[in-house]
UniProtKB/TrEMBL annotation:
This is Pyruvate kinase. It catalyses: pyruvate + ATP = phosphoenolpyruvate + ADP + H(+). NCBIfam families: pyruv_kin. It comes from Rhynchospora pubera. Its EC number is 2.7.1.40. Residues 30-359 form the Pyruvate kinase barrel domain. Pathway: Carbohydrate degradation; glycolysis; pyruvate from D-glyceraldehyde 3-phosphate: step 5/5.
């Protein structure tokens, strides 16, 4: 075996995988960030989440209002006191998110090959033929041939609840698209993402500033996840804003999730306290074969800089299932071996019925990932 290669100890290690997993005295060093929501906000469930390995509670302001999140946080504080486990609080900003509002809430059925128009005229009702968007600059940003992705849960990868659109023509402020896959969009709001297209909206929106200056200040949040960080200046702007509101100790984790953030990654890394690699969004801006290349390269840069890195979209199948796929479990372990400092769970804990199991499962995989592979001793 060449020096520097890794191997699994044999024969003891291979035989040991058949034995029941032993509880470790020391927990995994990889932190679990859990997004709190409808399925994970009661005191009882939060106690179980903390015992299962949740180290950071994420409050995503893309969903629900401040009052809802405050009630959840108050429950978390009770759970922390009851089980005597520490847990940091992360505020996730909305950022320049594009949304199509479906006022009726009725499902919209889309057929492949048909055309749909995206318009900034929000007085129009969403239908299979028109999507009213909360942004009037899309027609200037895209061109024929560009790809647009849209859905209620945008980055689940499900072809039945999200839709791929190809821009066909620009008509004034409207964008006419061809539907590339049959889908049924359900819910009151659909999120829209245009692949490798710069959206002329501020990274730190006025809504974000209002949330931070009220909810964030009131709760003295530990971490702010800055969604759609595209430039180092985005981090500097947020840091100045935090200092002006007596939140100088709050850490900033830059969420890199599009091609602009990728292009300016090294500068962003210098300014941020940590990085979140948002693989869901990146999976739209990048072809699948390039996502893992960016992940490994970015992870190495974070490790060299001595700054924590968190990855997302690891066990999506656990939104609906008790166990992850084999590929997902291996993905988590490989991320740990590459130096990942944290795993972020989104829909798995936000709305999935197996929130506690998702945390417990990922925590166990992280623990095995740290201990299961040993350096080769041969030369």
């Amino acid at each position: 075996m060449q020096s520097g290669h890794m191997l699994i100890e044999e024969p003891v290690r291979l035989a040991s995988v058949l034995a029941p997993t032993k509880e470790k005295f020391f927990p995994s060093l990889t932190k679990i960030v859990a997004t709190l929501g409808p399925k994970s906000r009661s005191v009882e469930t939060l106690e179980k989440c903390l015992k299962a390995g949740m180290s950071v509670a994420r409050f995503d302001f893309s969903s629900f209002n401040s009052a809802y999140h405050q009630e959840t946080l108050d429950n978390l504080k009770k759970a922390i006191e009851n089980v005597q486990e520490l847990c940091a609080v992360m505020l996730d900003t909305v950022g320049p998110e594009l949304q199509v509002k479906n006022a009726t809430g009725e499902p919209i059925v889309l057929e492949a090959g048909n055309h749909v128009t995206i318009t900034p005229d929000c007085s129009k009702a969403a239908s299979s033929e028109i999507f009213p968007l909360n942004f009037n600059g899309l027609a200037k940003a895209v061109k024929a041939g560009d790809t647009i992705f849209m859905g209620q849960y945008l980055f689940t990868g499900s072809e039945t609840t999200s839709v791929w659109l190809e821009v066909k023509e620009i008509s004034g402020e409207d964008v006419v698209c061809e539907i590339k896959n049959a889908a049924t969009l359900a819910g009151p709001i659909f999120t829209l993402h245009a692949a490798q297209v710069r959206i002329d909206l501020p990274t730190l929106s006025e809504t974000d500033k209002q949330i931070i200056s009220t909810w964030g200040v009131h709760n003295k949040v530990d971490i702010i996840s800055l969604s759609f960080t595209r430039h180092a200046e985005d981090v500097r702007e947020l840091r100045a804003f935090l200092k002006s509101h007596n939140l100088g100790d709050t850490q900033i984790f830059a969420k890199v999730e599009d091609f602009e953030g990728l292009e300016h990654f090294d500068e962003i890394l210098q300014e941020a306290d940590g990085i979140i690699l948002s693989r869901g969004d990146l999976g739209i801006d990048l072809p699948p074969q390039d996502v893992f290349l960016f992940q490994k390269s970015a992870m190495r840069r974070c490790n060299i800089a001595g700054k924590p890195a968190i990855i997302t979209r690891v066990v999506d199948s656990m939104v609906n299932n008790l166990r992850p796929t084999r590929a997902e479990a291996t993905d988590v372990a490989n991320a740990v071996l590459d130096g990942t400092d944290g795993i972020l769970l989104g829909a798995e804990t936000l709305r999935g019925p197996y929130a506690v199991d998702a945390i417990k499962t990922v925590s166990r995989i992280c623990g095995e990932g740290r201990d299961g592979i040993q350096p080769a001793t041969g030369v």
